[in-house]
Fold ABC transporter substrate-binding protein.
Amino acid sequence: MENKANYALIGMFVVVAVTAVLGFAIWLTGASINRQYDTYEVAFDGGVRGLSKGSEVRFNGLGVGEVTNLAYDKDDPNLVLAEVQVTENTPIDVNAKAQLTPLGLTGLNYIEITPGFDSGAPLMADMPGRGPKRIVGTESSVDELLTGGGDVVVAAQSALARANMLLSEENLATFSSILKNVDAITASVDVSELEASKLNDMMDSFKLAADAIAETARSIEGTSDSIDVAVKEDFKALLMKAEDTLKTVDTTVSSFDGTAQGIDEMVVDARGAVNRLSNSGLTDLEETVDAIRHLVTTLGRVADGLEQSPTQFLVGAEREEVVLPQ
């Protein structure tokens, strides 16, 4: 009986120990049978170095899930789609962004999801232009630096090549010669040769020039004041003349108005005279025109006679001579 009792106690202890270990493991990993998850796709344009299945997903620095799958987009192979599972009710909206973030110096990355500046509507499935709960992802700053590192190295090499050309032996010799010439010129100048009297004369000349400039400035200021006063007076007189001119124009316009009325009356009176002339004087005018026409015809015949025989026209026809018999 005692051996059988010991085996039963040992079996019960093993079962309790295994159960405790499993419970501790579940508690340690934070797993829960009833925990619900939301699935999203994070689209990266380019490679995803340091990211793999099981990589952590954080929201504002808090761990909310993990990467469950990595694949490229069948329609666009340049896009890498990372399928992530995050805790249910994580406030991911339509303005959310995802970025690869280095995990210390390990070379591994995790996905950091940040909400937009303006809180938008929750990101739902099958939204137009985004796909099934798709979040736009960007590379990490380290990856961007490594991507652009090639261009930086090329630029650095070009700069070093130019520096080597600048510091060539020929250029160094030329620069050394220039320094020697400058040293020789400065050595040939004796500062003691500068006389104090010349320096004083120069200072006095500068002082006189400064005084002259100040006097000129004062003169200009006085002249500007005089011009200002003159302009104001002339402008005032001009305004008065303009006012008188406007009055004269007004009077002239009034006189012209009266003259226009007189002309209107004269036109009315002349209209009656023209009507009378058209009735009674038209016949006289026709007779006068006929007389003038007859006079012109007569003058034409006289001109023709003068042209053919002026002497005969003036003296008359020659008389016939009669010869008497002897």
About this structure: The chain is about 60% helix and 15% strand. The longest helix spans residues 196-308. Helices lie at 2-29, 141-147, 149-166, 169-188, 196-308, 310-315.
